[in-house]
Specification:
It is built from eleven helices and eight strands. The chain is of the alpha/beta class. Strand 7, helix 11 (about 235-245) and strand 8 form a beta-alpha-beta unit. Strands 1-2-3-4-5-6-7-8 form an eight-stranded parallel β-sheet. Helix 2 (about 50-55) runs antiparallel to helix 3 (about 60-65), helix 4 (about 85-90) packs parallel to helix 6 and helix 10 (about 215-220) packs parallel to helix 11 (about 235-245).
Length: about 270
């Protein structure tokens, strides 16, 4: 009597579980069927840097001005790149731009890798230009010769140049040059003798040039020097100790940080 009842209960339990599973599966299916699919991810608008790059690439002056007219109040900065020199020249050659710019900063490089002479001549014709910066561009001795003709330039920044000591000699004729940042695999420690002749310098940053203890003393003897940065140099501990003892006023960085013996050691 009891066995038939238990058998029925088991069958009933199985049917109940099966029915429950079926309802659950049906519910999930219906949910996915009627639930709206998520919208596609919103495409972010291009950044100002990207817009500026595209406008220069297509020589679209109007697009550049529409992006941020205020950026041309003295400073022209291209953070992205590389950009084509032809587009850059076409934009900078506009008379209103040529008469007002005080700084040109090209940080993303040029498509051509080197500065076409026509572009360089255009830059040197700008009467108010005081700062010129080209990153990822192979600035040559010939380029420095042209740049040296501009007697009002104060800041030169060419960390990826291919200039030699002969190129530095051109800069000696620049009476207002106060900041120089220069890197080149073709410069040697002996270049310090030529750099020492740039007596108007207040800030000097040399990158990848094997300056040793003797040459460091020459650089430290620059009469107006306030800041000296050396990256990948050959100065010894004795050389740095001498510098900090004899020129404690100098703001010194070694490979982008303060030396641990620097009396002016502080966080930036």
């Amino acid at each position: 009597m009891l066995k038939p009842i238990l058998a029925r209960l088991k069958r009933l339990k199985k049917r109940t579980i099966a029915a429950s599973c079926g309802i659950l599966i049906l519910g999930v299916a219906v949910t996915f069927w009627v639930w709206p699919s998520p919208p596609p991810p919103e495409e972010l608008p291009p950044t100002a840097d990207e817009n500026l790059f595209r406008a220069i690439e297509s020589f679209d002056v109007a697009a550049i001005e529409a992006e941020d007219p205020s950026q041309f109040s003295g400073i022209f900065h291209v953070p992205a790149g590389p950009v084509p020199a032809e587009g850059l020249l076409e934009f900078l050659s506009r008379s209103d731009m040529a008469e007002t710019l005080t700084a040109v900063r090209i940080d993303g490089g040029l498509v051509e890798r080197e500065i076409p002479r026509e572009l360089l001549e255009s830059l040197m014709s700008m009467p108010k230009l005081r700062e010129l910066r080209f990153r990822q561009v192979a600035v040559t001795d010939s380029d420095l010769n042209v740049i040296a003709r501009h007697k009002q330039l104060e800041i030169l920044n060419f960390p990826d140049s291919i200039c030699t000591t002969a190129g530095i000699e051109h800069l000696i004729s620049m009476p207002t040059l106060r900041q120089l940042r220069l890197g080149s695999a073709h410069l040697t420690g002996e270049s310090a003798s030529k750099i020492r002749k740039l007596e108007s310098l207040r800030s000097l940053h040399l990158i990848g040039i094997p300056i040793d203890d003797t040459q460091l003393r020459k650089l430290a003897d620059l009469p107006l020097l306030e800041s000296l940065y050396l990256d990948d140099c050959a100065v010894t501990q004795e050389g740095w100790i001498w510098l900090f003892e004899h020129h404690p006023h100098l703001h010194v960085h070694v490979d982008q940080v303060h030396h641990d013996r620097d009396p002016q050691l502080h966080r930036h």
